[in-house]
Amino acid sequence: MTQQFNIRRIGNFIYRDIVLLRNTIITTLSVVGALLLFFFLYDLRGDHIISEEEFASNFMKFYVVLGILFTFSIFREAHHKKSNLFYFSLPISSYERVTAIWLTTSALYTLLFSVFGFLIGQVAIVLGSMFSETNFHLLPIFSESYWQGVTFYFFIQPTFLLGAILFTKNRIIKTLLFVVLLVFGLFIFNGILFSIFNIGYDIFSEDQIVSNAFSLAREDFSGIGIFLFVIIMVPVMLLAAYFKIIEKEV
Amino acid sequence: MIHFKNIRFYYPKGKTILDDISLDFVPGNIYGVFGKNGEGKSTLMKIVAGLLFPKSGKYHVMGEAMSRNTVKYLQHMFIVPEDFELPGIKISSYEHINSPFYPEFSREQFYELLKEFKLSPDEKISTLSFGQKKKVLIAFGVATNTKLLLMDEPTNGLDIPSKSQFRKIMASVVDQGKCVVISTHQIRDLHSLINHIVILDQSKVAFDQPLSTISECLWFGKTRRDSNESIIYSEASFGGKTILSRQDKDETEVDLELLFNAVLNEPVRISNAIKNTHHDSAV
Amino acid sequence: MDFDNSKPIYLQIVDFFYENILSKRWPEEERIPSVREIAVMVEVNPNTAIRAFNHLQELGVIYNKRGIGYFVSENGYNTVLSIKKTEFKEEILPDIFKKMGLLEIKFEEVKDAFNQYLNNKDNEEK
């Protein structure tokens, strides 16, 4: 089984995916780049600087959504009826495939898009220093919100990765629905647990307590729920994607 | 060297597509897989290519049991499907991103074949005609130097000069390390290349013989009506093409279309004729 | 190369060799194309080409120099000539005689036609 995991093949596969999506990536980045530039220039008005928080706020406008779209587009070849044959007959194991895709759409994407955002911001600053009173300064990007956003993306991305391979049509909508159901399911689960433990209080009789229950359930979800999400969800989703790829037939 | 044993395949709730298929693919040969539409030719090709799971059965490559999607298995085979779409990138980029996955890939050979097909590496695949795309894929498949090269209707979409080029290329690539399996309806295009015939009928292997055995045992041609030889198979059409047991007669070229029809209509008589003769000569 | 339907392909390749040897395109004691080259040239399976080579080797028309390739034998031309003469006498002539009988053609008529053919050829050459 040493055959089945080879770093070089993973590298080759990442390179292959990027070349295949090159045109899409270039088009998207030029549109997003123009928008980002506009937002950054807008931020320069008044104080003539782009703050960490301003960067994070502009960056997050695109980062999560683009990342999810990227995750879906990376499976384009796998879902196309006339090209999936090449995708699945390529000599690469399913471990390698999932690893490569995950690295591309999470780590590599985050790294490159951050650099891209930084560069656009820097261009905005240079432009500002040329045409206004802006003093040239290095754009700070590593704010708390930035890290929160990145963490959030890393948590939810594997679920979308699974959706991207699991569904063949209307993949984005189905995945969103799946996520909504998942969250709703956790919510109900918490609610049920809560009501089981508090059955003696006859919670459904009085509106007051019901709303208490729900708010507690919600709170519970935001604490333990997110923890569960991190520890269990990410590996579970990646594993599910792996099994889905293994059994994929053409 | 590549061996499939008792392969069975059916779709959920569907009828059986392949029933107990066992085949050996020996290098140095060009196999022709024939069958009526819907008799599972493409399914068989996909199973061999590791793209579909058989419901039961075994794969052996060079004596090693393999599962269909191990990297090592996939490295041994390349498939040129009948209908496909290639990415809209330059031919050279296509080579660049896919060739690293095939350990025996020869870039020199690939670009040489492109030249023979009159294609330039700088051309964008999206600007090519379907026939030209097929040539890119055939060139790539040959250059991967996999032990097994599968082709589903390779001459579909090729113009007449390209078909001739295709035959030349196939004649040059088959050697002791390589086995080519071609599934086709275009018997005429390829009959000079194929030296082993596999015919699928009613989900089973109805016929699986090397051409040398066929021409040793059977005689193809027109006979006079008054001939008192027992006819194995005959077509009533004008000219009355007939298959006889060869016995002491001169060797004739195998008429693949006639053989195909004979196997579908008189499978038992054909296999008996081959068994008897082959048995006699073996004794 | 277009193939005749009834004759085995390997024998048609053999005929292709005969043609080249009789026309002196492939002179005696000279190297001829390899199995692979012939297979590519006439677009056949190399196994079929090998059969043709083996057949010709058995007849003594060609021989194999280990590691170098195949050569036309020392008296390859004469061998081919006698093979083709026998073939003409044993296969083509009986056919012609049968047709002559069927069409009631006298041998004299054939002789006249042959002489006329020779005359025409002479005239053309002049």
UniProtKB/TrEMBL annotation, chain A:
Top-level division of the source organism's lineage: Bacteria
Sorted UniProt keywords: Membrane, Transmembrane, Transmembrane helix
Source lineage: Bacteria, Pseudomonadati, Bacteroidota, Flavobacteriia, Flavobacteriales
Residue ranges crossing the lipid bilayer per the database entry: 20-42, 62-79, 100-126, 146-168, 175-201, 221-243
Name this protein carries in UniProt: Uncharacterized protein
UniProtKB/TrEMBL annotation, chain B:
Family matches, as InterPro entries: AAA+_ATPase, ABC_transporter-like_ATP-bd, ABC_Transporter_VariousFunc, P-loop_NTPase
Gene3D superfamilies, per the entry: P-loop containing nucleotide triphosphate hydrolases
Residues annotated as domain ABC transporter: 2-227
Keyword vocabulary terms for this entry: ATP-binding, Nucleotide-binding, Transport
The organism's place on the tree of life at top rank: Bacteria
GO molecular function, one term: ATP hydrolysis activity
Protein's name in the database: ABC transporter ATP-binding protein
Species per Swiss-Prot/TrEMBL record: Aquimarina algiphila
From TrEMBL, chain C:
SUPFAM superfamilies: Winged helix' DNA-binding domain (SSF46785)
GO molecular function: DNA binding; DNA-binding transcription factor activity
Superkingdom, taxonomy of origin: Bacteria
Entries under SMART domains matching the protein: HTH_GNTR
Keyword field: DNA-binding, Transcription, Transcription regulation
Gene3D superfamilies given in the database record: 1.10.287.100, Winged helix-like DNA-binding domain superfamily/Winged helix DNA-binding domain
One Pfam match: GntR
InterPro entries recorded: Tscrpt_reg_HTH_GntR, WH-like_DNA-bd_sf, WH_DNA-bd_sf
Sequence ranges assigned to domain HTH gntR-type in this UniProt record: 7-75
Protein name: GntR family transcriptional regulator
